[in-house]
Amino acid sequence: MKRIVLATLILIGFVIAWRMLSIIDIKVIGQPRSTGLLVTEVEKPFFSSLQRNTGLPIRLDFKSLEDVGIKDSHQLPMMKDELFDLVSLRLIQNTLNETTLNGLDIIGLNLKSEQIRLLANNYAPIIDKRLQEKYHVKILGLWSFGPQELFCSKPLYKLSDIKGMKIRVQNGPMAQFFESLGAISAIIPFEDTPSALKSHLVDCASSSAASAASAGWLEYVHSYVPIAFSSGINIYVITLSKWNLFDQKQQEIILKAFDKHIDNMWRYSQHLYAEQQNCMLGKDSCTAKKYQISKLEISKEDVALIRLQMKTVSLKNWFEECNKEYPQCKNEWLNLAGRIAGIE
């Protein structure tokens, strides 16, 4: 009997030890908390409950971008070095690392949310292939912060008023676009933008309405331009070395969980956009802080100008740059995304 009990205890010990060794640790980097409720109310809770909801043998160490002290523009190279396992990739900030990323969010395209999501999903396989080859990471899903509009500390009465104004932008392609409209661009990190607006280092800045409100931009804003100069697309990516530790069934469970999460992110993004517009305009339906910000009325001529600059500046420059590194870039984008964007 003693031998049986001892053998049973040893077997139990082996089982416990095996289970502990089989747990897959995943270092997760999320978006900055300063970007708002989409991150704190949807993204962080998703990762906090992922193990419980999937039942997978995983242990997640989730940190917001501020907590790790790295530049968001360095995310892809650091994932290639396997310093992190799963990242909420800030797309605009990483376009210097991978030029095809620009194809998900052409500056000035100004599409509705449903069109942007369809375009992004159609073009995602190209991005996924490139990221796997160059950085050894796989896409788990794409989502949007919402329309990246323009918020200005000075009064605006027509779009052409931005000529000569200093505008905070997120990257080179956006800088080129606003410069083509006569503005002066400045690439400034998101977290430094409130002080830049307050000190008049810049006159305007581009972001989503919800993120602008969360980060305190609206305290210094007089007017805003309700044009989606870009769409704030972001991507979840996981290193292939970590992904390949899961068997096929486990991978399917992870993808299913992310599909549901991605739906929630798109849905909540649209909700936040509608809510924040009400608050910026001081409407009674606002349930948060109210402002009295002037909304620029966009003319047909303004829309036509944005469309023209998108084709002759954003798209043209990106096609030229991308084709140098990836010769089939232009043709693939036109075949997969051109029809959705209304460009043949």
Oligomer: single chain
Number of strands: 11
Q: What distance lies between the first and last C-alpha atoms, to the nearest angstrom? A: 80 Å
User: Low-confidence runs (pLDDT<50, min 5 residues)?
Assistant: 13-21
Query: Could you report the average pLDDT, rounded to the nearest whole number?
Result: 92
Number of domains: 2
Give the SSE string.
HEHEHHEHEEEHEHEHEEHHEHH
The CATH topology of the largest domain is given as D-Maltodextrin-Binding Protein, domain 2
- CATH class annotation of the largest domain: Alpha Beta
Main sheet, how many strands, which sense, barrel? Answer: 6 strands, mixed
CATH superfamily of the largest domain: Bacterial extracellular solute-binding protein, family 7
* Count of helix runs: 12
Shape: globular
Based on CA atoms alone, the radius of gyration comes out at 23 Å
Strand order of the largest sheet: 7-6-8-5-9-11
Taken as a percent bin, the fraction of beta residues is 15-25%
Measured as a percent range, the helix fraction is 40-55%
Structural class of the helix and strand makeup? alpha/beta
Would you identify the CATH architecture of the largest domain? 3-Layer(aba) Sandwich
Structure write-up:
This protein has two domains: 166 residues, D-Maltodextrin-Binding Protein, domain 2; 119 residues, Bacterial extracellular solute-binding protein, family 7 (D-Maltodextrin-Binding Protein, domain 2). It is globular. A six-stranded mixed β-sheet has the order 7-6-8-5-9-11. Strands 2-1-3-10-4 form a five-stranded mixed β-sheet, with helices on both faces. Helices cover 49% and strands 17% of the residues. About 3% of the residues have low confidence. By secondary structure, it is an alpha/beta fold. Strand 6, helix 6 and strand 7 form a beta-alpha-beta unit. Helix 6 crosses helix 11. It is built from twelve helices and eleven strands. The longest helix is centred in the C-terminal third of the chain and has 33 residues.
